[in-house]
Design brief:
elongated, 2 domains, 6 helices, 6-stranded parallel β-sheet, 29% helix, alpha/beta, 11 strands, Rossmann fold, 224 residues
C-alpha cells in the first residue's frame, strides 16, 4: 500500500531515513520538513518542506490536508517543543507517530566533563578568564551574554543575522571537522572549556574526542 510519510528532520538520521524510504518504497511520497535555520540545507531524498507549521494545530491540519499516513519525529534530541507538537498533532489527526532518537554520548575514561541540566547552569560553571568554544545554535547564545569576563569562540554553520550579544568573542563559520581539525582549532584559540549539549551522534563528536586528548574541560548539558 502506498503511504505518505512526513519526516520531521534536520538531523543526519532524518536524511538517512529519507534515502532509505525513497529507495525501498519508490511508490511512497516521502516529505522531510526542515525548520529553516540553515540557509542552504543539503539536498534530501524525496520532497523537502521548509518552515514551521504554526504549532500543534497547524501540524495537525497539515497532516490531514496532505493525507499523511505516518509521522516520523527525527529531530534534534533537544528539540523539545517540536517533539511535543508532534505528539499533540498526531493525536488530533489520528496519525501514527514514530520517533527516531540517537543515543547520547557516554563519558569515556579521560573525559573531563562537568554535567549540568541547563544552559544557564553551563554558563554559571565557567570560571572567570576562561576561553570557551560555544558550538551552539544562534538561538542559544544570549544565555551567555552576562559573562563579560569570559572569551567565547562561537561556531555557526551560517553567519548570524544580527551581532552576537557577547562582550568578548570571535566567530567561526563552518561545520565541525575531524579530530585533527578540531584539535587545531582548539589549540589555535587556546580554548580551556567547551560548552556542548549532549546531542549524540558522530557528526559533532570530534570536538569531544579532541577535548579528551587535550585535557580540555567540557561543560556537558544533559538531555531534558
Amino acid at each position: 500500500m502506498s503511504e505518505i510519510v512526513l519526516i520531521l528532520g534536520g538531523t543526519k538520521e532524518a536524511a538517512e531515513l529519507a534515502v532509505s524510504l525513497v529507495a525501498e518504497h519508490p511508490d511512497w511520497r516521502v516529505i522531510t520538513s526542515l525548520a529553516g535555520r540553515t540557509r542552504e540545507p543539503a539536498p534530501l531524498a524525496g520532497e523537502t518542506r521548509i518552515g514551521g507549521f504554526g504549532g500543534a494545530d497547524g501540524l495537525a491540519e497539515y497532516l490531514r490536508t496532505e493525507g499523511v499516513t505516518r509521522l516520523i519525529d527525527a529531530t534534534h534530541p533537544f528539540a523539545r517543543q517540536i517533539s511535543k507538537n508532534a505528539r499533540l498533532a498526531t493525536e488530533k489527526a489520528g496519525v501514527p507517530l514514530e520517533t527516531v532518537t540517537r543515543p547520547p554520548w557516554q563519558k569515556q575514561p579521560g573525559d573531563l566533563w562537568v554535567e549540568v541540566n541547563s544552559l544557564e547552569k553551563a554558563r554559571d560553571e565557567l570560571p572567570s578568564g576562561a576561553r570557551v568554544l560555544l558550538a551552539l545554535g544562534s538561538q542559544h547564545i544570549s544565555v551567555f551574554a552576562s559573562r563579560a569576563d569570559v572569551h567565547f569562540l562561537v561556531r555557526m554553520v551560517d553567519p548570524p543575522a544580527e551581532p552576537l550579544p557577547l562582550a568578548d568573542h570571535e566567530l567561526v563559520i563552518g561545520k565541525p571537522g575531524n579530530v585533527s581539525e578540531e584539535k587545531a582549532l582548539l589549540a589555535a584559540h587556546r580554548i580551556s572549556h567547551i560548552v556542548s549539549r549532549n546531542s549524540g551522534g558522530a557528526a559533532s563528536y570530534a570536538k569531544i574526542e579532541a577535548a579528551r586528548q587535550m585535557g580540555i574541560t567540557v561543560v556537558m548539558v544533559e538531555r531534558p
